[in-house]
Each structure stands twice: as structure tokens, then as C-alpha cells.
Write a structure and sequence with these properties.
The complex is a heterodimer of chains A (87) and B (271). Chain A has 87 residues and is of the alpha+beta class. Chain A has helices at residues 2-8, 15-34, 39-53, 82-85, and strands at 61-68, 71-78. The radius of gyration of chain A is 23 Å and the shape is elongated. Chain B starts with a strand and ends with a helix. Chain B is α/β, with parallel strands linked by helices and 271 residues long. Chain B is built from 13 helices and eight strands. Classes of the chains: A alpha+beta (87), B alpha/beta (271). The A-B interface holds A 11-16, 18-19, 21-23, 25-26, 29-30, 33 and B 146-147, 150-151, 154-155, 158, 162, 188, 190-195, 198, 201-202.
Chain lengths: 87, 271
């Protein structure tokens, strides 16, 4: 095998892997950057308020900011536990 | 009007100080009165790269604290009469770098008829790096063709777009340039290294230069001569091209292709 790779000079072509990984991580980091600064704090406080009145998991509260044309839409999605919705 | 240019990167060890020294020297060689300011408070090294470490008496922090005048602190370069170095403080805390102080010093340099003021940023994204880019008109982002350097460059670009004075005042944004250093065409062609077009595609800012990896850089820093002065070297040529492009000339990129050494070269050069 070593002889084969010596003959055909097959070195790993890792540059394409680097490019792919960078494109993904940088796109993700740029998304996080474009939102307003208060978003993480707002997220935390919303979780605190909602969990004060209901027993929800922090994971069940999803907050996202979308852009539709000139409008920014703050989307807060809370999945209430069954016990409460059944009351 | 003086132009303030920050040389920055986020990541350390990619060639910020080497590039600041050669870029500033190149502007001076082209006849422009230039100052190069070391913002790396606590870890100054620009003085060593410029070869003026034994002439440092006062530094940037002394000038900010009004313990010395700019004229006392500026060190005239040994190669160029129109190039001056303002060293960083070795002993002080980096918090001594106040925003008002930096603004005043840059303003005073402009009043002294400097055409270009090069700010050599420290690595990282903390106070010193932020101060170096705050008042910039243009930014040279030094990047190695390597994942962590590219990511950090993107990070620092985000900071320039958010925290620079131009961004905060809603003025025309800081003009960004990509400078790729330590480039090895042979490894790029073998698929082992990100190509300059890959890096540019990811960072999406205009490319202003490519500096090939070279032994000359170490020779230059050993002797305290900016690499641009090593006549005949690829690095020197590449930095001169960078300066020409910065001054608005159209110069094609060089040192981006690997030429296989011929049989004779291989036998006689011993490489």
C-alpha cells in the first residue's frame, strides 16, 4: 500500500475539507452576529418569565429573529407541557 | 488628510508585525511620510522588527499620558528618512490605552503632516486590538491559508464593521483589504493548502496581496530589517506589489504558481 501511494503520489487532499468546514462555521457565526445585541439577554429573561408561571423546559422555548423584506419578525415558540394544556 | 490603516488579524503569529513593518517601509520608499504605531502594549515587538529597539526612550503610553511629546517618542527609521516608529509600552497595563488618548495621538500625527499612519494591532479581540482598529479608515486583514486564521479574520472583520468609529458614526465603512501571508503554492497545487481564491471566497473582501512563505522573513527579523528591504527576494517583491496596489496601481498577483525545478536546478541547487 505504501508502495502504491508512493508510485501514484496520493497525498491526502485536505484543502477541500478545510474550505467546506470554514464555509459552514463562518456562515453560522455570521448569522449569530447579525442579530441585535439584546437577543441573548431577551432569550434568558423570557425563559425566566415563562418558567415562573408554567413548568416548561428551557429547551421548549425557541426564539428566532427572521427578516421578511423590511420587517424583522421576532418569533417566540413555547411548547407548553401537556398537564397545563389539559386543564 | 492622513489615512489611518490598521493591520490586524485576530489570530496571532500570522505576520501582522512583519507586514506592518514592510508595508510602512514600502509607503516610505515610495515617498510618503509614514508613521507606524505599535498597539501591542505589554508585548511590543515592532521595534525589534524595525531594528530600532535600542533607541526606544518614550512610547505610545508616555505620549497618551503626556509624559513625553510625540517628537520625543517618534523614532526615525534607519532606512527611510520619512518613516517614523512609535513603539508600544513594555511595562504598562493595556488599559492605559484610552480611547481619547489614542484619538488625540492619531490626530496629532495627522497635524504633523503624516500621510499614512499604520496601526500594528495586537492579536486577539481585546482592548488593544479594538483601539488599533477604532479610528481606522482602511484595514489590512492578514490571513494565513489555514482554518483558524481564516475564521479569526472573519471575526475581526465583524468587529471592524461593528466597533470602528466609521461604523458607529454611520460614515462610509472602513475599506477592507485581504492580505494572505505564508502562502505555499506547491502545497496549494497538491491540494494540501487553501488557495488564495478559496480564502477570498470565504472572507469576501478584495485581495490586496499574497506573500509567499519564505526563509527571508526570518533572516530579515534576525537582523532587524523589514523584509521589504531584502533585495531580490520574493517576499520583498510581494510587499512592493502590495504597496503599489494600495496606492491604486494595477499589479497582477505573483508567486502564486509552483514551478517544478528542472533537472539542472535540482542537481545544482541541492534542493
Amino acid at each position: 500500500m505504501a508502495l502504491l501511494s508512493f508510485l501514484f503520489n496520493t497525498k491526502p487532499k485536505s484543502a477541500s475539507a478545510a474550505k467546506e468546514r470554514l464555509q459552514i462555521i463562518i456562515a453560522r457565526e455570521r448569522n449569530g452576529r447579525s442579530g441585535p445585541d439584546f437577543l441573548p439577554a431577551l432569550h434568558k429573561e423570557l425563559i425566566a418569565v415563562i418558567s415562573k408561571y408554567t413548568k416548561v423546559n428551557a429547551d421548549d422555548i425557541k426564539i428566532s429573529l427572521d427578516r421578511q423584506g423590511n420587517l424583522e419578525v421576532l418569533d417566540v415558540n413555547v411548547v407548553l407541557p401537556d398537564a397545563i394544556s389539559g386543564q | 488628510m492622513a489615512k489611518v490603516i490598521v493591520v490586524t488579524s485576530g489570530k496571532g503569529g500570522v505576520g501582522k508585525t512583519t507586514s506592518s513593518a514592510s508595508f510602512a517601509s514600502g509607503l516610505a520608499l515610495r515617498g510618503h511620510k509614514t508613521a507606524v504605531v505599535d498597539f501591542d502594549v505589554g508585548l511590543r515587538n515592532l521595534d525589534l522588527i524595525m531594528g530600532c529597539e535600542r533607541r526606544v526612550v518614550y512610547d505610545l503610553i508616555n505620549v497618551i499620558n503626556k509624559e513625553a511629546t510625540l517628537n520625543q517618542a517618534l523614532i526615525k527609521d534607519k532606512h527611510c528618512d520619512n518613516l517614523f516608529v512609535l513603539p508600544a509600552s513594555q511595562t504598562r497595563d493595556k488599559d492605559a490605552l484610552s480611547e481619547e488618548g489614542v484619538e488625540r495621538v492619531l490626530g496629532d500625527l495627522a497635524k504633523m503632516d503624516f500621510e499614512y499612519i499604520i496601526c500594528d494591532s495586537p492579536a486577539g479581540i481585546e482592548h488593544g486590538a479594538i483601539m488599533a482598529l477604532t479610528f481606522a479608515d482602511e484595514a489590512i486583514v492578514v490571513t494565513n491559508p489555514e482554518v483558524s486564521s481564516v475564521r479569526d479574520s472573519d471575526r475581526i472583520l465583524g468587529i471592524i464593521q461593528a466597533k470602528s468609529r466609521r461604523a458607529l458614526n454611520g460614515e462610509e465603512p472602513v475599506k477592507e483589504h485581504l492580505l494572505i501571508t505564508r502562502y505555499v503554492p506547491k502545497r496549494v497545487e497538491a491540494g494540501e493548502m487553501l488557495s488564495y481564491s478559496d480564502v477570498q471566497e470565504i472572507l469576501r473582501i478584495p485581495l490586496i496581496g499574497i506573500i509567499p512563505e519564505s526563509e527571508s522573513v526570518l533572516h530579515a527579523s534576525n537582523q532587524g530589517n523589514p523584509a521589504i528591504h531584502i533585495e531580490g527576494s520574493e517576499v520583498s517583491e510581494a510587499y512592493k506589489d502590495l504597496v503599489a496596489r494600495f496606492l491604486g496601481e494595477e499589479v497582477a498577483m505573483r508567486f502564486t504558481n509552483y514551478e517544478k525545478p528542472g533537472l539542472f536546478q535540482r542537481i545544482f541547487k541541492g534542493k
